[in-house]
TrEMBL record:
CDD domains: KH-II_NusA_rpt1, KH-II_NusA_rpt2. This is Transcription termination/antitermination protein NusA. Residues 285-345 form the NusA-like second KH domain. The gene is nusA. One of its GO terms (cellular component) is cytosol. Participates in both transcription termination and antitermination.
């Protein structure tokens, strides 16, 4: 039969999980009406009866009987003699309903119908998938590694939906094999050419926040609130938590006995070092806690510039700055203040920016990145250590040290 391929199409899609019977009927009718418009110029006088369960349909064309020789629009009118071939007792002015066979549309039209139907069904499915995952943005999702590419890992979920985990959304220590289950948050969902692009992230701070919700019952129940999360993925994170119930110790509840509760989260994040601190609206205290494990001597706040000068004993400075400057950088991001570290008793020290006439700005910035903002803070460090921790050549560092030493020799 000419319409066999089309009927097969109905059978393919009638059991589609993404589409209900009413929607399928609407799509089928729309596809056939477009075909009728192309062939007859209009579909206004056609009735289409679709039965997706059985995989068949009926098309009826309604025309008015007119006298022989007076047919002006053959799509809407039929001559008396033609009408009487259908039923001998038809008279002028009466309505004639005549079934249009699919074969009458022609082989090419039937093939086009099938392609159009498949396209419409896929478009509908993609819209459903897009809406489904759009509602999941910011939520934890699990999918299986299907294919590993240079710049991304391609995952498939249980429904066969493709989820992309780009390289820059992974934790640096992440290593995946085909078949591995991967957890992350759905970071973004976009429609590109009617196909949804679903991006997962394991580096986003929200992933850590959602892991707290998932792994710590008091956070899930709302007894403890995660106020802010900042991360250097795979290296270090700081999480500020609060509780409106004075009987609950939010930090203790999140960390657990000997770190039992947070251990699973740390392992999921590639042994990322997680500092959990008590949130407070007292900014001095908040910055003090954020710089943990360093012990702060005093703080001077400038609300206008959102800067904080923190005084520490010399032995506490390296703790405040942290490896690679991670601790002080995250403390600044967590509190929203730019933090300058000063050593106790270093009133005669000079800020590096004062040497901008002799030392190039990008070199000063390299020292700032590792928390060295003053002349003495640079001079107190070993040259080899400075070479290791910055992107500066030893010769450049020696030039800087000579310039700084001259300041204090004068």
């Amino acid at each position: 039969m000419e319409n066999l391929a089309l009927i097969d199409s109905f059978s393919e899609f009638k059991d589609d999980k993404q589409i209900d019977r009413v929607t399928l009927m609407a799509i089928l009718e729309d596809v056939f009406r477009n075909a009728l418009k192309k062939k007859y110029g209009s579909d206004d006088n056609f009735d289409i009866i679709v039965n997706p369960d059985k995989g068949d349909l009926e098309i009826w064309r309604n025309r008015v009987v007119v006298a022989d020789g007076e047919v002006e629009d053959p799509n809407e009118e039929i001559s008396l003699s033609e009408a009487q071939k259908i039923e001998p007792d038809f008279e002028i002015g009466e309505d004639v309903s005549e079934e249009v066979k699919l074969i009458d549309l022609g082989r090419r039209s039937i093939l086009a119908l099938r392609q159009n139907l498949i396209s419409k069904i896929h478009e509908h499915d993609n819209t459903i998938i897009y809406k489904q995952f759009k509602d999941l943005e910011g939520e934890i999702y699990t999918a299986e590694v299907h294919h590993i590419r240079h710049r991304a890992v391609i995952l498939l979920d249980d429904e066969g939906n493709e989820v992309i985990l780009p390289k820059d959304k992974q934790i640096p220590s992440d290593f995946f094999r085909k078949g591995d289950n991967v957890r992350g948050i759905i970071e973004s969902v976009d429609l590109k050419g009617n196909k949804p692009t679903i991006i997962m992230s394991r580096a986003n701070p929200i992933f850590l926040e959602k892991l707290f919700e998932q792994e710590i019952p008091e956070v899930f129940d709302g007894l403890i609130t995660v106020k802010n999360v900042v991360r250097i993925p795979g290296e270090k994170a700081k999480v500020a938590v609060d509780s409106y119930d004075d009987r609950i110790d939010p930090v203790g509840a999140c960390v657990g006995m000997k770190g039992s509760r947070i251990h699973g989260i740390v392992r999921e994040l590639g042994n990322e070092n997680i500092d959990v601190i008590n949130y407070t609206s007292n900014i001095n205290l908040y910055i003090t806690r954020a710089l943990s494990p360093a012990k702060v001597t005093s703080i001077k706040i400038n609300e206008d510039t959102k800067r904080a000068e923190v005084i520490l004993r010399p032995e506490e400075v390296s703790k405040a700055i942290g490896r690679g400057g991670h601790n002080i950088r995250l403390a600044g991001q967590l509190t929203g203040y730019e933090i300058d570290v000063l050593r106790e008793g270093a009133e005669e020290d000079v800020e590096l920016r004062e040497f901008s006439d002799e030392i190039e700005g990008w070199i000063i910035e390299e020292f700032h990145k590792i928390g060295l903002d003053t002349a003495k803070s640079v001079l107190e460090h070993d040259i080899k250590d400075l070479v290791k921790r910055t992107d500066l050549e030893e010769e450049t560092i020696l030039d800087v040290i000579n310039i700084l030493k001259e300041e204090f020799e004068e």
